[in-house]
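Marked as duplicate of an earlier ticket. Keeping the data here for the record.
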Amino acid sequence: MQVNGKTSSLQQGQSTKVAPALVLRRLIDARLHGSDPSLQDLMQLRTLCKELGVTVPIQVTNTRDAFYRHAVDTSLEVVQEANGMISSREEARMFLGSFAMYLEHEDKRALTQLLAGVAARTR
């Protein structure tokens, strides 16, 4: 696993990359033990990436797809229930778009997964 970011010094770059990498590692470990990450966990990862200006590419395609698919499903569920974490479709769109970007998820693949999630919910 690697974390990509733009920093002015090597030391600053290393410390900047640690927090998102640790959160991602915790989420991957939880998935390996059968627990899906909560929306709050996914939002924490996205927020760290955004604030620190880094990405956390997941090299294993199946793992990256599973994380994004879970983010789509959870976001749609939260919007449908209107329970406050994501209060509108616009917030869900912004969350999912930036989450895909911070995972370095391919645009076309992310869109396909999003459309599949919406289609499954509207059946």
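See parent ticket for discussion. The longest strand covers residues 4-5.
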